[in-house]
Design goal:
Elements: H1 5-16, E1 22-27, H2 34-48, E2 53-57, H3 65-68, H4 85-97, E3 102-108, E4 113-121, E5 127-132, E6 151-155, H5 159-172, H6 177-198, E7 204-206
Length: 207
């Protein structure tokens, strides 16, 4: 049975009992709905136990264009090598220690840049939902993250749905129709195929 958002919130609360900090990975391909569902799930948990949950978005660890441009990586921004996986790893280790607040970056999609220290994970946040494309990728340097997660979820969405969402996303960001199709099919869907085929099996597949 595929859990709905209410069931998932209840399941995470139950699983987190007895943990000083419970870290959940919510992974999946681009346009699977990770940001939307992670924030919704966080709200559902906090409605049951106010202030207990927070979200850490992996997109905040995008390298800035100023770093990517000299390496010729701006055209493939969003691929695994365009993220600061080590920075995410270090922050998640600090979050797991649960001995002080940790400031994390948040990606501003309209501005196409990460805002440093845009969100604070406090000691009150016992359940931390980390959402992102490559959290379960079974390739270095991403594999070091896996031991930091108490529970892993993977959003499974059909390719045709992902492609349609991605085209709409690019159109919404000002791309013309042909450019939106090109970016969705040859950039984002390439990353989606990698995520679907090279990620470690999760505890729960969420359809």
């Amino acid at each position: 049975m595929n859990p709905n958002i209410h069931d998932m919130a209840a399941r995470l609360l139950e699983a987190a009992q007895g943990h000083e900090r419970f870290v959940v990975a919510l992974a999946g391909p681009p346009a699977a709905g990770k940001s939307f569902l992670s924030e919704w799930l966080c709200r559902e948990i906090n409605e049951r136990q106010p202030g207990i949950a927070a979200v850490v978005p992996m997109d905040g660890y995008h390298f800035d264009n100023a770093v990517l441009e000299p390496q010729g990586l701006v055209p493939i921004k969003g691929a695994p090598e365009t993220f600061d996986a080590d920075g995410l790893h270090q922050d998640l280790m600090r979050i797991r220690r649960a001995d002080k607040s940790v400031a994390v970056p948040v990606f501003d999609r309209p501005l196409d840049l990460a805002r440093a220290g845009a969100r604070l994970i406090t000691l009150e946040h016992r359940i931390v939902i980390v959402e992102g494309n490559y959290l379960l990728l079974d390739q270095a340097p991403w594999t070091v993250l896996h031991e930091l997660f108490d529970m892993t979820l993977f959003l499974e969405v059909p390719d045709e749905v992902l492609e349609a969402r991605l085209i709409q996303r690019w159109l919404g960001m000002g791309q013309d129709h042909s450019g939106a199709i090109e970016r969705a099919r040859h950039k984002d869907m390439s990353n989606a195929r990698l995520i679907k085929t090279a990620s470690r099996p999760p505890h729960i597949v969420w359809r």
